[in-house]
Amino acid sequence: MERWRGKHALVTGASAGIGFAIAEGLARAGVNVIGCARNPSTLEELGEKLPPGSGKIFPVKTDLEKEEEISALFHEIQTKWGHVDILVNNAGGGKMGSLESQSTEDWQHMFRLNVLATSICTRETLKLLEKDGIEDGHIININSIAGHTNTALSMDGIGFYSGAKHMITAMTKNLYTELAKKKSKIRVTSLSPGLVSSRVVEQYKEALGENIKGTFLDALALECKDISDAVLYVVGSPSHVVITELTIVPSGQIY
């Protein structure tokens, strides 16, 4: 990680859960972290508690469902820091419901947050890296095992979310190939966790109630720090190594 010390990372959805853990992990490794979220107050507190030698935390209030706010975020990045060397597209989420019953509004929400925000942040990051002539960089998409499997076989109600994550899987592969064809040294990774103890999972558990028994949610879960450690492993690998896909699940989870 030493080669990233003093450089800048953007972590989306950084105010809680996995995103917060990733922001803290990168900062403790000496990376300056721009953390965007709709309520970034927890990031302000984090910046005050980090030990000496850590990177700085720069909280930016951003609603990633609004493209104009993403544009404002990247304008601020360009003005203050020029570019970010690492992008962690962490923001995402889902709503429980069958494909035959969910509203169009629910689908639009999941598509904007999981797919469009990831795509726009990636595009704008690449633009700034190219503008500044940066040949080294890393884009990490926090995906899910739901982006690789038929989730209806193990759990009802997350079909559209799974579809959105499948799109992240496809886009990450395509982006890697596009950059490789250009002989770019920018690395691209899809990091796909299984069950993680997070706010989103707790919402799913609450929605299912007693029906949780027998589903994959009724099992041992990873901690958010486990995903942060995985990000540090991926980013800290030698520059000639590209970990294009990393799946991380709790012991015993079948998917």
TrEMBL record:
Q: Which Gene3D superfamilies match?
A: NAD(P)-binding Rossmann-like Domain (3.40.50.720)
User: Which keywords does this Swiss-Prot/TrEMBL entry list?
Assistant: Oxidoreductase
Q: Say if the entry is tagged with keyword Oxidoreductase.
A: yes
Top-rank lineage group of the source organism: Eukaryota
Report the GO molecular function annotations.
oxidoreductase activity, acting on the CH-OH group of donors, NAD or NADP as acceptor
InterPro entries xrefs: NAD(P)-bd_dom_sf, SDR_fam
- According to the record, the signal peptide region is none
Listed PANTHER family: DEHYDROGENASE/REDUCTASE SDR FAMILY MEMBER 11, DEHYDROGENASE_REDUCTASE SDR FAMILY MEMBER 11
The entry assigns this protein to a family as follows: Belongs to the short-chain dehydrogenases/reductases (SDR) family.
Recorded protein name is Dehydrogenase/reductase SDR family member 11
Q: What is the originating organism of this protein? A: Hypsibius exemplaris (Freshwater tardigrade)
